[in-house]
Structures are given as structure tokens and as C-alpha cells.
Amino acid sequence: MKSKKGALVYNWTLTLMIIFILGWAYIQFYSKYAKNEPLGLKQLTLFRIYAKGESVLFYIDQSAKYSLEQSAYDLAKSGGVSEIEVSDAETFAGYECGKFNDAYVWYQLRKNGEKYNSKDCFDEKSAETNLGYIFNKNLDKYLVNYPINIPSGNYNYRFRDNLEIIGLASLPININIFKKEVLEDFSTATRDVKPKPIDISQLNKDTTKLSEGFRDFTGTDLCAKGSKCVLKEDAFQQLVKSEKIAESKKLCKEGTCLEVYSGYRSYDEQNSLWNGSTSEKYADRYKDPAVRIKYVCNPDGGEKSCPHMSGNVVDIRLAGKTTSTMNSADWNNLYSIMTSFDTNRQPLWVKYSNEPWHFECCNTPRYARAISQGVTSTV
Questions:
Q1: CA atoms of 262 and 150, how far apart (whole Å)
Q2: What is the pTM of this model?
Q3: Does residue 19 register a pLDDT over 80?
Q4: Of 65, 80, 145, 171, which cross-links 151 as Cys (Cβ 3.0–4.6 Å)?
């Protein structure tokens, strides 16, 4: 009996020790991590984030199905040829036989005396490239309407057995588990929220400082939805100043005024543009490098030839607009904002004459030359 009583006392002692340890661990965890949040909330948040991730992937899969069906219809309707809106209205497939009754001509047969001269106008190999281009445009229309930021123009496509189109993503989908909105129900993300002027303190919290003095502000109000936005720190601060100037000019009724859709590009990213690996398909549109360089720079020239690689350049527009919906008044307003003077009586940015959306700052060769020459606008 003594041994049994001793065993009973030992079990109660062990139980009390376990309760004490668990209680101490709870207090330590709560004081360090909870910050007035109920125990288990962070774990619940992770489950919700996982569910959101699954929802995003499902949305992309369904969007891809609808986009492929629409793209096949669009391509058939256009006679197997797709066109890109460029400055010289160049036909995407290098098409040269024109149209007949609003349909592209695939085969020409011309009578020459007693003989007929024939010409094949359609290269079947281009159909795959054309389909990939149209598919990407249709898919991006779906992705940009999703509540969570999904990178657009983010896929490299390949076809298999003429039946499947496989997209390989270049950038991951990031869901910030520390932002307040992830603690809310998913339905709240789709509600219409009245926009407010930009909160600089909150903006600094929502951005990420990267190595070598870069700032990543992807997913913030200053970055176009679906775009990757990274700038050097000085350029980012110039952008914030420009936004504040836009607000002071009352050029936007509510919410953020400016929207960056392209900033810093690494060598690899610029090289993908140059080699035609991105949705723009520059190498397919301009096979001759001497012609292509008029539309996209060769990264081998470094930052002097490709200022986007410096991290001090933005392609920018007014928020809520696209480059195709910006009218002359919009471009003038954007120019007025971006070239406003800072406290040193120097323009915050200078504009590249050939591209009304392209602005540079912070000692790029174009910016330094403009300052040295006293030029404050277009160079």
C-alpha cells in the first residue's frame, strides 16, 4: 500500500509540474507574440492564408480555361493573325498580304498573262506565338480584377501536342500574412472600400527595404495591380514627394493619384524583354536587332543604355487609367506633377521625350544631363 500511495503522490506532482510549465509557456508566448490577440489567432490566420492561396490558384486555373477558349475564338476570327498596338501599327506576325472583307488573306493567286503566280501569306508557325500573345492578354484581364495582387504578364508559355498550353510563372504570388486584412473574412477583400489619400507612415510599413538600397513597394497603392514595383531608396522618396504634390494639386478626387507599372529591372529581366521571353514578344515583333533596339534596350549596354536597370526610373500613369485611356490633359497633368521642383529648385524627375510615361531621377545620365543644362522638362 505504501508503494501505491507513493506512486499516487508522484503522479499528482508530475501533473502539477506539467500544468505549471504549460502555464509559464502560455504567458511567455502571449507576452511576446500575441500582443492582445487571443491564443491561436496566428495559427488560424495561417489556415486562412492557405485557403486564400488555394482560392487564388483555383481562380487562375479557371481564368486560364476561359482565356484559352476566348483566345482560340479571337485568333480564328482574325484569320490566325494577332496584332499589337505599336507606334507604327506594325502587324504582329509580320503580315504582308493585307485583308479581304476584313479577313486576313492566307493565299494569293494573281494572273500574270497566261500564268498564275501564287504566294503563301500565312506562316503556320506564327499561330502558336500569336495564340500565346492573345491568351496572355485575355488572362491578364481576369487576373487584374482579382482582390489579391497577382502578377500580370507573369507567364512564359509553351504548347504541347497542339492541345495544351502550359504557363510557367516567373514571379510567385505573395500574400502578406502580417497585414491586417488577412485576419478578416475573405469576403471583405471584395467589398468596395472608399479610397483615402496615401498614408506615408503606413506606406513605409507596407514596403520592404532590400539589399543595396532598394525599396520594394509591390502591392501598395503606388504600384499598379499585377505589377512588380522596386526602386532605389532615393527614387522611391522622390515618388512619394510626387504623390503628395499630385494630392496638393487636387488632380485626383480621392485615393492615390499616381500608379507605377514598371520600375527597376534586373539584367535577367531586361534580357528576357530583349530576347522575347516576355508577353511583349519583342524579338518576334522585331527580328532585326537594329530595329528592335528602337523599342526595347539591349541589357548588354548596362544602365546607361537601359536606365530601368539603375532603379531610378518609373513608367507611370494616373491611377485608374491605362496608357491607352490617358488623354492629352492627363499626360500634361502627369508631366506637371513629375517635373515639379523640390526644395533645391530642381525637378523631381525628367521625362524621356519618346515616352510620356517614362521619368528618371537621381543621377541617371539623362537626369544629370538635364540638371547640368538647366533643362527641367523633356530631354
A1: 15
A2: 0.71
A3: no
A4: 171
